[in-house]
Amino acid sequence: MRFASSKELLHATPTLTASDPVIPVSPDVEVLFKEARRRARRRRLLTGGSIVATLSAATVCLFVVTSIQNADPDLPAAAALPRAALQAAQPDIYVVHTPTGTGQPGLVNVMDSGTGQLIRTIGSAYDPYSINSFQLSPDHTTMYYGQLNEAAQTVDLVIAPVDGGPATVMPDAGTPRLSPDGKYLEYANSAGGFFHVKDLSTGEVSTIPGPGGFENLAGSLSWLPDSQHLLLAGSPILLMGYHCAPQLDGAPPMGVCPVPTPPAASPTASILNLDTQVWTPAPLLQRDDGRYGTLLGPGTEPGTVLTMPNGPASPAPLPDHSFGPAPLLTVDTATGAIITTATIPDHSRILNTDTSGTNILILNYQQPDATLDRWEPLTGNQAPLGPQVDEATW
Predict the structure, then answer these.
(1) Is the dihedral of CA 339, 266, 72, 189 positive or negative?
(2) What pTM was computed for the model?
(3) What 8-state DSSP symbol labels residue 313?
(4) Burial of 14 (0-12, 13-18, 19+ CB in 10 A)
(5) H or E element in which residue 54 lies
(6) What tens digit of pLDDT does each residue of 137-169 get?
(7) DSSP track, 294-343
(8) Membrane-spanning residues where (predicted)?
(9) What is residue 313's predicted lDDT score, i.e. its pLDDT?
């Protein structure tokens, strides 16, 4: 037996039979009834008009999206979602590297995002010699950071449980990048020319050659939001060793840094499909000066990345190693189109983003004493979290 739902009962139309009495309607009630029907008909017309307009806009958007032929058919296209709906909540913790003194390794501390209080210290022998080596797993259980192996002259990867358990070390595995879902770890070693992707659930490692000409490019690498694609944007402006780390204080760079050479190839951007292990060209946004922007991490929507354009059109770093107001773009990797544009706050420097790309840790140099701030590029909100640090992630 099926029972009518409340919605069916509400909109049901009664059927009169010959035996049903007909009650006459008073003139006043009939006037009110006609007025109610007139208002209901007007609401339907207005609603119908808005639906037609919405459907028309959606049809145009759908036509634009479906007209784009991605180089990789498995690569999802960016979706036109409301900006406010994409803002993620503030992560509950963040991890910082705080120097203890000049020339000292410093401490790796786990902090409470809400109170700014220290939760625990998970590392004290940390040397920040590896670019982009400070990573926290999306579930906030594991910390990854690079540590100099002076004897081997390589960067080892330290894997430390956030709860304070014993850490493990992966030799010669610098520049770690965790996929947004936390299932894969991409890293490079001193050999260069190859990308290594480790499945953290099985321990299996895939060694994948870079796209053609990668050895002659200064590459910037980022995961895409689906955790199945890696984007490499290269600039032929400078030939640079993969572990060459320029120092902000003007000291000689650390690592192997070949002498800059003239461009050997045109600027390039390629996307790696983890399933097929095939690189395909990507029409990533390219500046007029021939450079690609620095990739900061996955974007807020499918198929997008966060990028900070570099080159003469962007302000040069200020004496405090911060930037003036500079653009932060969300770029669709399938088309090169700019999805969103935000302005990085004046006198600040980006340290890291969360997995949603909507909460960014920045160093704020606008005050006499610099602070670590949370910045939301979608809303423009900015709030201090704690004192100045060398590195931070969440």
Answers:
(1) negative
(2) 0.69
(3) T
(4) exposed
(5) helix 27-67
(6) 999 999 998 887 878 888 889 898 998 888 899
(7) EEEEE-SSTTEEEEE--STTSPPPPTTS-BSSEEEEEEETTT--EEEEEE
(8) 45-65
(9) 44
